[in-house]
Design brief:
With about 475 residues, this protein is α/β, with parallel strands linked by helices. The protein contains 16 helices and nine strands. A hairpin with a 4-residue loop joins strand 2 and strand 3. The chain is elongated and about 155 Å long.
């Protein structure tokens, strides 16, 4: 298949395994860089604080940071106390207020108009007129109603005791000096409570009348249009909802401040950065942070290099890119290393199936596979009348070192009728041309992460030009499960 038309599929599992496979590289590079960062930070701060001026400046900075830290905690505590106090007060008000207990869709109202009448008359034939006391009398009644005396009188006679502030807010008192009239309106939860409060209010006002008669002058106090009625008050409904929502908002704000206070308590206090222990602690933090950052960067570099690399990453790519059959995958045999069990665990994550210990067996199996294929082809050709060939010449070549091909052939056993020769790189060694042209079949030998796709493509172009049949490819150095 032409390389230009082949779109290589990126296997996340393969990329992830490439990173895990090189965990030692990531670890040691990150460790070395982290130690350098931590040691440099420690040495630099020690040098900076070696002078008295720097040391004194560091102590002042610590004092400011500690003051700000403690002030933040005190501020949060005060805010929480204020919010809890406001919420308690609002909850108490909502529970005790008569206005909060009224059904806004069945609000009961009691109203009455009080009219002050005097015998004052304007005499046209007199130059000096008598003083009109109506305004003073009306003001005296208003003072009595509004300064708390009337409310106290009502509270002293009510059967169900309430606080004066809750009584005052259900009253609405309006006056008109031109007509010498006062209007009282009382809101309540039911008709009985409205009537009771109105009766005691009028009783107290008429009891006050005797005192005003003596102090100011003769007059009459008449009550007009006394009634009790029921109405719908949507403004009261909105006001009640607002009060209840206010309690909810205070609870939410308190919870947020408590969370902030908890976070503040869990946050570390400012360190005395001028002390040796604080310098060591800060250097250790930078060491750990540097280790994590460098490890991530190295892992990202390995993953990125694996994605963009032109090197052979897996034998499956050779089939998809060039149509080559994979004859064998020979794993790379590594020396036994420490923490080898980690490598085995990562190999399972990478989905590896080949074991490093099976390398010799797989090499021998590759020779048997080639022999079986060519024997079958020979029998088929003999059945069609083709001439028998005494010895089949095989050439093993590729972009790997010739020594590696020879090492591969040394592990292969061939029966009678086969000869296998190692051939150097046909793209670099002129002597390889004659060896290839004399061979009957060619087997490519490539190495994972060493051979490149572009080199393999050029090799195949040359072999096609020489009319040589390529039986397949043997991939060396593939990843295997450690022993």
């Amino acid at each position: 298949m032409n390389e230009q038309t082949y779109e290589q599929e990126i296997s996340l599992q393969r990329v992830f395994y490439r990173v895990l496979r090189d965990w030692r590289k990531c670890f040691f590079i990150a460790l070395v860089v982290a130690i350098l960062v931590g040691a440099s930070n420690f040495a630099l701060k020690e040098i900076q604080l070696s002078t008295p001026e720097k040391l004194e400046s560091a102590k002042m900075d610590y004092s400011r940071e500690l003051t700000a830290y403690e002030a933040e905690g005190d501020s949060l505590k005060r805010e929480i106390e204020n919010l809890e106090e406001m919420r308690t007060q609002q909850e108490t008000y909502n529970d005790a207020s008569i206005l909060m207990q009224i059904n806004p869709f069945r609000e009961f109202n009691a109203s009455v108009q009080l009219y002050v009448a005097t015998d004052y008359k304007i005499l046209p034939d007199k130059t000096y007129q008598d003083i009109d006391l109506s305004g003073r009398i009306l003001q005296s009644y208003l003072s009595y109603m509004q300064n708390g005396e009337m409310y106290q009188y009502i509270l002293d006679h009510l059967t169900e005791k309430i606080e004066m502030r809750y009584l005052q807010e259900i009253f609405n008192i309006t006056s008109n000096y031109d007509t010498c009239m006062v209007t009282l309106r009382i809101r309540g939860v039911d008709e009985q409570s409205c009537r009771e409060i109105l009766d005691y209010a009028l009783e107290g006002i008429y009891a006050k009348r005797e005192e005003i008669l003596t102090a100011i002058g003769q007059h009459e106090l008449n009550s007009l249009n006394q009634s009790i009625y029921e109405t719908v008050n949507l403004e009261l409904d909105a006001w009640q909802k607002s009060n209840r929502q206010y309690v909810s908002d205070l609870s939410v704000n308190t919870k947020e401040k408590l969370d902030d206070l908890t976070a503040w308590r869990l946050s570390p206090k400012p360190d005395k950065e001028y002390e040796l222990s604080a310098i060591a602690k800060d250097s250790l933090k930078k060491l750990i942070l540097g280790f994590i950052i460098v490890a991530v960067l190295v892992a990202a570099f390995i993953a990125f290099r694996s994605i963009i690399s032109d090197k052979v990453q897996a034998s499956q790519d050779l089939k998809g890119r060039f149509g080559l059959r994979t004859i064998a995958q020979i794993p790379q045999t590594r020396k036994k290393r420490a923490w080898n069990w980690i490598d085995r665990g990562f190999a399972k994550i990478g989905g590896l199936t080949v074991k490093e210990s099976d390398a010799e067996q797989l090499i021998a199996l590759a020779a048997q596979s080639i022999s079986a294929e060519l024997t079958a082809q020979t029998k088929e050709n003999s059945g069609k009348g083709s001439a028998n060939q005494e010895t089949i010449k095989l050439a093993f070549t590729g972009s790997v070192a010739e020594e590696e091909i020879k090492a591969l052939l040394s592990g292969m056993k061939w029966g009678n009728g086969f000869s296998a020769d190692s051939v150097p790189n046909i793209l670099q060694n002129p002597a390889a041309v004659s060896s290839i042209t004399e061979a009957d079949y060619v087997i490519l030998v490539e190495k994972q992460e060493v051979s490149s796709y572009s080199q393999i493509e050029r090799e195949l172009e040359e072999l096609r030009a020489w009319k040589k049949e390529v039986l397949g490819v043997i991939v060396l150095g593939v990843d295997g499960i450690p022993a």
